[in-house]
Amino acid sequence: REFDGIRLEKVREHVWEIPREGDMNVPARVLASESLLAEIGEDDSLRQLKNATHLPGMVEPALCMPDGHQGYGFPVGGVGAIDARTGCISPGAVGYDINCGVRMVRTNLTYDDVRGREEELVDALFEAIPSGLGGGGVIGGDADAIEGALERGVEWAVEEGYGIESDLARCEDEGRRPDARPEYVSQKAMDRGRNQMGSLGSGNHFLEVQRVTDVFREAVAEEYGLREDGIVVLIHCGSRGLGHQTCNDYLRRIEKEHGDLLADLPDKELAAAPAGSELAEEYYGAMGACINFAWVNRQLITHQARETFGEVFDADPIEDLGMELLYDVAHNIAKKETHEVGVDADGRPAVGDEAVDRADRELYVHRKGATRAFPAGHEDVPEAYRGVGQPVIIPGSMGAGSYVLRGGDESMSVSFGSTAHGAGRLMSRTQAKQEFWGGDVQDDLEDGQQIYVKAESGATIAEEAPGVYKDIDEVIRVSDELGIGDKVARTFPVCNIKG
Ligand code: 5GP
Ligand code: MN
Ligand code: MN
Questions:
Q1: Could you tell me if 82 and 69 are in contact, meaning their C-beta atoms sit under 8 angstroms apart?
Q2: 369 lines ligand 1 (CB under 6 A)
Q3: Running DSSP on this structure, what letter comes out for residue 173?
Q4: Residue 204 CB less than 6 A away from ligand 1
Q5: Is 490 in the pocket of ligand 1 (CB under 6 A)?
Q6: Per-residue confidence (pLDDT) for residue 306, from 0 to 100
Q7: For residue 296, what pLDDT is reported?
Q8: Is the domain 101-331+419-498 a CATH 3.90.1860.10 member?
Q9: Is 66's C-beta closer than 6 angstroms to any atom of ligand 1?
Q10: What is the chain's Cα-based Rg?
Q11: How many other β-carbons are positioned within 10 Å of the β-carbon of residue 346?
Q12: Which listed ligand is nearest to 96 at the C-alpha?
C-alpha cells in the first residue's frame, strides 16, 4: 500500500511496515486492519511516524496503534521506545496533556436502577463536577495542596480524604510516580493548575455513566468486578493547564539549549532532550510531577462522583454501591521501562539483519494516545490483577461502545506492552463544527439511543460528535486479534457530562 509517496509492506495480518531508508534509525510499523490503515493514511500520521524514526536512540520500529491519527509532531496513537542511556526524551512524543488518561469506577447498580433517572443523575453530576473553560476545581489549590499533589499524587489525595486505601493499588505506579520532581515545574505552570484541581476541562474530556452490554471473557470480567447490565463510571481528563504549560516550558528550553539536536530532526515539533543531559532529567522529573497532578485530578472527580451517586441513590457509595476503582490508565506519558530489544554483535540496539541477539535495555517508552497493556504475570501489574493481566480501558464515543480489555500476552513482543487508547479522530475539530450542530447531536443521542448528554458548550458536543470518531469495534478487533489487548467487556453510554 502507498499513501502520498509513503510505501508500506504487509508483514503479517494487521502489521504494516515502512521500511528503513535514508536517515531513519529504525523502520516504522502501523498496527491496523486494511480499513483502519486507509483512514490512518488520509492525514499526516504516516509522515509523522516516519519522521519520528529519526529521533536518536530509537530502538525497534516506531509504532502507530490502530486508532492513530495526526498530532503535534508525533502521531496520537504513537509508541516510540528510545534508549534511556544513549537516546533522548521528546516532550512532543508525550503530548501537551501530560497523563491525560481514563479511569473506570465500578458500581453494584444495574441499568434498571438508573433507567428513568438519567436526567436527575446527569444534572447532579454536572452540578458537582467543574467542567469547561471556566476556572474552579473541586478544591482550591493552595500551596500545600499543589505541593502534595505534585510530590505524592493519589497518596496525598487519599490522605486528605478524597479516596479510599484500595484506590492506590488500582492506578499505574500506585498513583505516585517515584521519580516526580516538583521543583522542575515552573511557577507559571503551578499557577495555571492552582484553580483547576478536580476539573474536567473542555473538549474531549468527560465523565460518562455506562452500562455493561457484553462480556467476552467471563473469568477476567469476574476478577474485574464487571457483570452484564452493571453500571460503571468512566472519567477522562488530564493535567489541565499545569501539564500544558510544562510541555511548553520544556519545548522552549530545548530550542534554546539543544538547537543542534533539533537541527538534525525533520520536524521541529519532535524536539528532544539528549539522554543524560540536565534538561532530560529535569523534564522527566517535571513530567512525573504532572503525572501525579493528573492522577489527583481524576481522584478528586472520582470523589465527587461517589458523593453524587450517594446522594442520588441515597446510599453509601462504598459500602452499599460498591464504587471501587477498577483501574486508571495513562494516555500521554514517557516512562523508563526495561524491555528486550534486538542488539548487534557489540551489544548495541539494532534492527533487521544487524540484530543478532536480544537483550534487556532501559528505555524511555513514549506512549502518546496509547495505553499500557501489560499481560498476566508482569510484576508491574497490581497483585489483584496479576493473574489475568492489567485492565485496559478504551473509550469509544458518547454514542458508541467503549471497552475494557486486559493486557494481552503478545503486547510485550509486539508493542512494548501497549495498545490503542480510543477510537481515534476521523476529522479535525474545525471540520467537525462544520459537519455537526451540537443541539442536533444532543437530540439525536437522547431520542435515538436514550443517551443524556450535558455540556458547558454546544460547540464541544459538535466537536466530539460520535461521527468524528473511527469505528471503535474495528480498533478493538485489531487489538484483540494481535493479542496485545484482549476483549473483556463492552459498555454503552447512559449519560455523559462534557467540558
Ligand atoms: P483523547 O485522549 O485522544 O482525547 O481521546 C481518547 C478517545 O476517547 C477518543 O479517541 C474517542 O474514541 C474517545 N471519546 C471521546 N469523547 C468521548 C465520549 O464522550 N465518550 C466516550 N465513551 N468516549 C469518548
Ligand atoms: Mn486530554
Ligand atoms: Mn486522553
A1: no
A2: yes
A3: G
A4: yes
A5: no
A6: 98
A7: 98
A8: yes
A9: no
A10: 21
A11: 7
A12: 2
Global pTM reads 0.97
The closest of 431, 407, 484 to 172, measured between CA atoms, is 407
- Ligand 1 centroid to 205 CA: how many Å? 7
Q: Are strands 101-110 and 230-237 parallel, antiparallel or unpaired?
A: antiparallel
CA–CA dist 426, 422 (Å, integer): 12
Q: How far is the CA of 362 from the centre of ligand 3 (A)?
A: 26
Specify the residue with its C-alpha closest to ligand 1, atom 4.
204
DSSP H helices, 217-321, are 218-224, 240-257, 259-263, 278-312
37: enclosing H helix or E strand: helix 34-40
How would you classify the pairing of strands 452-455 and 485-498? parallel
Question: What pLDDT, on the 0 to 100 scale, is given for residue 121?
Answer: 98
**CA end-to-end distance (rounded Å), the chain:** 39
Atom of ligand 1 nearest to the CA of 424: 10
Place of cell 478487533: 477
Residues carrying CATH 3.90.1860.10, the chain: 101-331+419-498
Residue type, 144: D
* ipTM of model: 0.99
207, 209, 213, 236: residue to mutate for ligand 1 pocket, most atoms within 8 A of CB: 236
pLDDT of residue 229: 98
| Among protein residues, the one whose CA lies closest to atom 24 of ligand 1 | 397
Q: 101 CB less than 6 Å from ligand 1? A: no
Please report the pLDDT score of residue 141 as a whole number: 86
Pairing of strands 230-237, 325-330: unpaired
Ligand nearest to the CA of 95: 2
Q: Which atom of ligand 1 is nearest to the CA of 498?
A: 19
Q: Is 393 in the pocket of ligand 1 (CB under 6 A)?
A: no
pLDDT at 135: 74
Query: What stretches in the chain show pLDDT beneath 70?
Result: none
* Residues carrying an active site annotation: 421
Ligand 2 mean position, distance from CA 77 (Å):
13
CB-CB contact of 121 with 209 (8 Å)? yes
**Predicted local distance difference test score (pLDDT) of residue 456:** 85
Distance from the alpha carbon of residue 98 to the mean position of ligand 2, in angstroms: 8
Kindly report the protein residue whose alpha carbon is nearest to atom 14 of ligand 1: 397
- Measured CA to CA, the distance from residue 281 to residue 286 in angstroms comes to 9
487 strand-pairing partners: 405
Q: What is the DSSP letter of 270?
A: G
Question: Separation of 457 CA from ligand 2 center, angstroms?
Answer: 17
Phi, psi (deg, nearest 5) at residue 130: -60, 135
For the CA of 332, the nearest atom of ligand 1: 2
> How many Cα atoms within 13 Å fall on the side-chain side of residue 459?
8
Dihedral Cα 351, 352, 357, 360, nearest 10 deg: 30
Q: Give how far Cα 17 sits from Cα of 23, 27, 218, 417, 475, Å.
A: 16, 7, 35, 19, 18
